[in-house]
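Sequence in, structure out. Go.
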Amino acid sequence: MSALLLIALVLVLLVLRQPLLVILLAIAAAVQMIWGRGQLDYIIEDMWVGLDKEVILSIPLFILCGNVMTRGTTAKRLIGILEAITRPLPGGMAVACILACAVFAAISGSSIVTMLAIGSVMYPAMRASGYDVKFTLGAVMSGGTLGIIIPPSIPMIIYGLVTETSVTDLFAAGVGPGLLLTGVFSIYAIWMNRHLPTRRIDLGELAHAVREGIWALMMPVILLGGIYSGFFTATEAAAVALAYAMVVEIFVHKELKLRDFYEVVLDASKLGGSLFPVLAVALSLNIVLTEHRVPAMMVEFIQGFISSPLMFMLMVNVLLLIVGCLMTTGEAILVLAPLLAPVAEAYGYDKVVFGLIMILNLEIGYLTPPVGLNLIVAMGAFKQQFGTLVKAAAPFIVLMLASLALVVWQPWIAMYLVNGKF
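Output:
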């Protein structure tokens, strides 16, 4: 009876279109009163316990690092190098766009930041070079989604927090699927633009581009190399990334003034201010649910109906694809990951693999209406109709679904770097 009342409360709040923070607070309060210790002040105590983790510091640091680079010229310099390299390929500029998104994703950890940083340069350049408008929009928006699958990734950090999974392992597992998607998008870009003229590599221009962009190109090498070698943790990597980005943009590129840093911090604080209250309540709720064996009871309940791990995974993928259309990635992970990860583990799926599968599903949600964030942001950034953007994203969604199916079928793609073997 108590569970039915809790479900009814959630449904009422959803119908009233309340924000996720209000819904989670209401659930936490109800759980504390019904199954918990009967005192609401324990919610605050559990918030402090949940947030008392070093890895949480990496989230604002990566957000701030992405803002610093967006204000500077890191993205433009990366694009210059990749354009010079991909000239001989049909659709070389489109391939450069995808590769630039992949490299920038290895710095920013955010889909929207990646899309805007690369798209603001590549969209007008590709249109001026004769690329189809829908293909160009699709390439920029889908390339932006690489920001949450190629490490470092803020959704991976959130998943690691709420499921107590190693963030370093999640970062390592994101490399394989990230490279897979980058390769698939690049091959599609070459095929779709095979009629466009190619150019020979200009060694002088390439050398100039490398000289101009070498500092930007070294950042993901330092960042990911330090994490995977064990030289520093994910949190330390975030601090190193921020320090490196500031030194390069302020003292080397000289594109960012110290007085501009106030606005950069302010923008990052606004994003963090909307994320951390929700994260605190979600972690508090997670503690209560774990104390009262709710995930364990879910495992027993689901296993009573579904015996096949494959059937479970198919149902979860369908659920996550639907959820990705209706909720942002962070919200979906905070709500579903603590409940689904233990169930997946009971069916034999490693929590790291399941985390990557979950993020791949939700990554597609950035391109699907009605809450596709890349679609919504692209409307304003590129001055296009929502329907046009949906049509532009459609072929890339098909490619992402095929890549997702491949990772589910062959999980070694994600786990190769984690285990060091097939």
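Check: The chain has a mean pLDDT of 84. The chain has 20 helices and no strands.
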